[in-house]
Design a protein that fits this description.
This protein is an alpha/beta fold. The chain has helices at about 15-25, 40-50, 65-75, 115-130, 145-150, 215-225, 225-230, 255-260, 265-270, 285-300, 315-320, and strands at about 1-5, 10, 30-35, 55-60, 85, 100-105, 130-140, 150-155, 165-170, 170-180, 210-215, 235, 245-250, 250-255, 275-280, 305-310, 330.
Length: about 325
């Protein structure tokens, strides 16, 4: 595995790690999936190559390594979706959309003769699923799982010289393969993706705090009580484009997809509020997740005065009950 350095990859086997990435021939704007990314220095190395328009997703089994990778990336202002780190076990399904990745780089061992052959065949199928037609898969191994061997074509792999060859270094073999699979017929190609991740929130730590829910009527009563309590609370709408169709009057829009990265500035802005009420479309996903992230942040700071809450039912229930009340519901101007 790798550890984070300022500019170069620091690894127990640095030649193999850097060689594997170089063999991948990553270019600007590509989406790359890195399996077995460790503490993330290889991902940061790739991020320089793909640039601002590309994306790199690092996956590892060690939660502590992923946490370190996220801290390092944040310190360098590399954030999702451009650079994302996800904790996934090697036996799990990859949290990546099908046909969404230009290149898969794997530091995971995938020996077809191992006792875990069934799990490795499953991972091989997952790699096949996520790589685009014509996309590349770069592996360091002696034997390729049958689930990949039968579906990928081995390309030439470059060693120190300029001539293509299968490269061997310290008993490692480097394969670059390309996927021979038919492209999707929809739209005669691929629609642009903001992220290859199936679920955007997997790029962030899972929240641990539990939060209380408020009924929509309780929030409406808070708003009706007047100025004496107005400064004690704030209502946060964590939706994004769906905000325009109607929202709680006076609510502040803070999209969930960037909320975790903005926690320090959010606290600086609303840390004096005793009650911070979050909602989304139905308050089943984005709203509770952001409320729990904020409560985690408060707990970490030892700040017990504010409280993160969730408006039960979200904007869907709010509009059913108060959509016709202009004092409680507002809409963006056309």
């Amino acid at each position: 595995m790798t550890s984070v350095g300022e500019e170069a990859i620091d690894s127990t086997d640095p030649i193999s790690c850097t060689r594997l990435i170089d063999v991948a021939s990553v270019t600007e704007g590509e989406t790359v999936l890195y399996l077995g990314c460790g503490t993330g220095s290889g991902v940061l190395y790739i991020a320089k190559r793909v640039g601002d328009k590309g994306q790199v997703i690092g996956i590892d089994e060690r939660l502590d390594a992923i946490a370190q990778a996220r801290r390092t990336a944040t310190a360098r202002d590399l954030r999702p979706p451009r650079v994302a780190f996800v904790h996934v076990l090697q036996t799990d399904e990859l949290p990546v959309l099908s046909d969404s990745v230009d290149c898969v780089v794997s530091m995971w061992s995938l020996r077809s003769d191992s006792e875990e052959r069934q799990e490795e065949e499953k991972l091989g199928n997952e790699i096949w699923r996520v790589v685009k037609p014509g996309g590349r898969v770069v592996l360091s191994m002696k034997d390729i799982p049958e689930s990949l061997r039968s579906k990928l074509v081995v390309d030439a792999v470059y060693n120190h010289g300029s001539q293509p060859e299968v490269a061997m270094n310290d008993n490692k073999i480097f394969y670059r393969l390309h996927a021979v699979k038919p492209p999707r017929k929809e739209e005669d190609g691929y629609l642009p993706l903001e992220s290859a991740l199936r679920d955007w929130w997997t790029a962030y730590p899972a929240p641990v705090s539990e939060v209380q829910h408020l009924d929509c009527g309780d929030v409406a009563n808070m708003m009706r009580n007047g100025s004496e309590k107005q400064g004690d609370y704030v209502v946060i709408d964590v939706r994004r484009k769906d905000h325009a169709g109607g929202h709680v009057r006076g609510s502040v829009q803070c999209p969930a997809q960037t909320f975790y990265d903005d926690l320090p500035s959010f606290y600086e802005r609303f840390g004096e509020k005793k009650q911070v009420v979050f909602y989304c479309g139905s308050s089943h996903g984005r709203g509770p997740r952001c409320a729990r992230w904020y409560q985690d942040y408060l707990n970490a700071k030892g700040d017990t005065r504010p409280e993160a809450l969730v408006m039960r039912g979200g904007i869907k229930e709010w509009k059913e009950r108060f959509g016709g009340d202009d004092g409680l519901t507002d809409r963006d101007a056309d």
